[in-house]
Amino acid sequence: MQNDFLPNFILCNTTQRFVRSSRVPLVPMQKPSVPCAKPNFYCGTQELNSAHQSFARLHSGFFGIPHMFSTVRLLGSRSLPWLIRALLDHISNKVSTLEPMITGLQEALPKSIGLLPFDGGVTGCMRVVKENLNWGTKSELKAEVLRGIKEIGSVLYWMGLLDVVLREVDTMHFMQTAPWLGLFPDADGQILLSQDGGDSPVVNLFKSATAAVMSNPGCPNPTSFYTMSKQAEAADLLYKANMNTGSVLEYALAFTSAALDKYCCKWSAAPKTGFIDITTSKDFYRIYSGLQIGHLEDSVQVSSNFEVLGDSVAWGGCTIIYLLGQQMHFELFDFSYQVLNVAEVEAGLLTQAHKNPHVAQDFKLDSSFDGIASCAITDSGSDSAASSLLTFSMFRLINLAALFFCKGWETLLEAMKKARRLNNHVFSMLKARCPLEDKIACAIKQSGAPLHRIKFENTVSAFETLPQKGA
Predict the structure, then answer these.
(1) 3-class SS at 11?
(2) How high is the pLDDT of residue 160?
(3) C-alpha distance from residue 191 to each of 162, 196, 301, 345 (Å)
(4) What does each C-alpha distance from 214 to 226, 231, 301, 325, 447 come to in angstroms?
(5) What crossing angle do the helices spanning 284-301 and 382-433 adopt, rounded to 10°?
(6) Which residues constitute the domain of residue 400?
(7) Which residues of the chain have pLDDT under 50?
(8) Assigned domain for 207 exists
(9) What pLDDT, on a 0 to 100 scale, did the predictor assign at position 140?
């Protein structure tokens, strides 16, 4: 897992699959050869082996839910915790390894980074971003940080797949054992006992059978039945103890949060004034924002760069941001979000200019001279003619700007939109599986002085306060 799967496999969030990257790994892996055995040890005959290989070939190019079921069956409940613990330790080690690298990127940031200006358009925004993110000499450091975040995201997503499979396996076990244990789920999903204070059906069955056998004087050895009755009671306790199993993903998120607490003062420093630092903040969300927009720009220029990281980097970065309590900061001040906002305003201005009726009513377009429009001034006055000519020149300039805008930044903006949708998806999944119980805010007194660290509970969901059907 640590030497091959995590570094060399990339995640596709849409298909929920890990696929091996086409890029050559940094360190070649030495694996033992596949063991050879006689055909009758596989499926019995050569024909059955061929049929099974054709079926298995459908799942040979990726790692997903089918392989997770096989992993759970192969390791079982005894060996699976060892693998989970090893992966959690890998997350802790990666966080410790990333700490000095993040510090190096923080030191390279300028003292002040303001919001991106709207008057420069997308071109001006990207120029400002490149000027602020002066990481040109730290390309190897950036790549190493992204790989570390990607491996953290891969482990967490792998835990999510394992959690889905374990829940399905536990549900199947519950369906098989619940009738014997006298258990049933209620309307709220809670497991209830069918007999209050009594024994389960399987225990009652063995007790009644033992009592009937021991009451028979012709039974030579009733001790074995008494032993089976006690074994049924022990099995009843063991199965009931494994009914309410916890979530592996929630435990992994709690473990990751505990690993981040050590570096919270460096990656999520409290503002000196009590308000959000817009220009001087060097928290983790600002570092990840710069890494993300740089990665998106590189992926647009060289498409193979995306095959190194995949969607795992979004799971790793957004999880760290969420656990540090920086989601709102990230959504407000992320460079990609700001560029998309500027692009939306710019596109709106271009659309408004095209729909302006005052532009077209003073002149007529004659598409001669190979598509170059010529203007026939309708007004006879010189001032009106000059005004119409100026309006037409501005109209053509806007057309050229729109054409250049679409061709120059269309691919990058689409990549930013895709990244934003993925980030929102990750945040929504984290809120569902690991809700933050309380929030820390800053209130303002009537005198204008800030009141620091005010805690308030999460608001009740709107769905819980809606009137129920038939009420």
Answers:
(1) strand
(2) 92
(3) 23, 13, 55, 54
(4) 9, 17, 83, 66, 86
(5) 120
(6) 356-409
(7) 359-381, 392, 400, 402-404, 406, 438, 456-471
(8) yes
(9) 85
Q: What is the DSSP letter of 109?
A: S
pTM of the model: 0.73
Q: What is the pLDDT of residue 159?
A: 93
Count Cβ atoms within 10 A of the Cβ of residue 289 and give its class: 0-12 exposed, 13-18 middle, 19 or more buried.
buried
List, for residues 75-114, the tens digit of each pLDDT value: 888 888 899 999 999 999 999 999 999 998 888 888 888 8
* Secondary structure element (H or E) that encloses residue 176, with its range: helix 139-181
The alpha-helical segments, DSSP class H, found in 324-470 are 327-333, 335-354, 357-360, 382-433, 462-465
Q: Enumerate residues 6+ apart whose C-beta is below 8 A from 361.
A: none
**pLDDT value, residue 316:** 94
Nearest to 183 by CA among 203, 164, 163: 203
Q: Closest Cα to residue 409, out of 19, 120, 53, 199?
A: 120
Element (H, E) at 249: helix 248-261
d(CA 291, CA 57): 37
Q: Which of 389, 409, 429 is the last residue of a domain?
A: 409
Q: CA–CA separation, 191 vs 184, rounded Å? A: 6
How many domains, in total, are found in the chain?
2
CB atoms closer than 10 angstroms to residue 91 = 21
Establish if 405 belongs to a structural domain.
yes
- Domain edge (last residue) among 203, 225, 241: 241
Dig out the tokens for 267 from the structure.
């990656």
Structure-token pair, residue 276 = 């959000």
Measured CA to CA, the distance from residue 330 to residue 289 in angstroms comes to 7
Q: Is residue 167 part of a domain?
A: no
Asked if residue 339 belongs to a domain, the reply is no
